[in-house]
Model the fold of this input.
Amino acid sequence: MDDQEIYSIVGEDGFTRLTAAFYRQIPNDDILGPMYPAEDLAGAEERLRGFLVFRFGGPQRYLETRGHPRLRMRHNPFPIDLAARNRWMELMTNALMETALPAEVNAALWEFFNGVATFMINRQETNS
Ligand code: HEM
Done:
């Protein structure tokens, strides 16, 4: 399933619902909550939403406002070890379930997130 096909099925509406379902879980999360800007969660939600819309071939709002994603570099300030990566995927998996997209699109998005999430790991596991 190619990117355009994914976007044509999910659309702005699907990505809006997905990112809302993801960010709704952030404030109460013990690992991820402290990493995200409490005073600008709506902005963070919009950045992820805009990125996904652009990445899957929709309007390029994200590029116009944020420039090239450079995701690894932009995540470097945040301590992302395996536990944080796995928690992020857990919350995104919950969000995907809640959004209830067609099975094929759901699987393609999960694979995409899973790969990028591993790529974002930038710290060794701390032994605590
Ligand atoms: C692996 C665990 C991850 C952690 C702990 C994490 C954490 C964060 C945090 C704390 C921010 C800053 C929020 C903001 O103010 O925008 C952020 C931004 C962002 N994240 Fe992640 N993230 C993870 C994985 C991912 C993945 C898998 C993707 C995409 C598939 C992604 C896409 C983004 C985007 C697009 C932004 C906004 C970048 C910008 O324009 O500044 N993140 N992330």
In short: The first helix runs from residue 3 to 23. The CA atoms of residues 97 and 106 lie 8 Å apart. The pocket of protoporphyrin IX containing FE is lined by residues 32, 35-37, 44, 47-48, 51, 66, 69, 71, 74-75, 78, 80, 84-85, 88, 113, 116-117, 120 (CB under 6 Å).
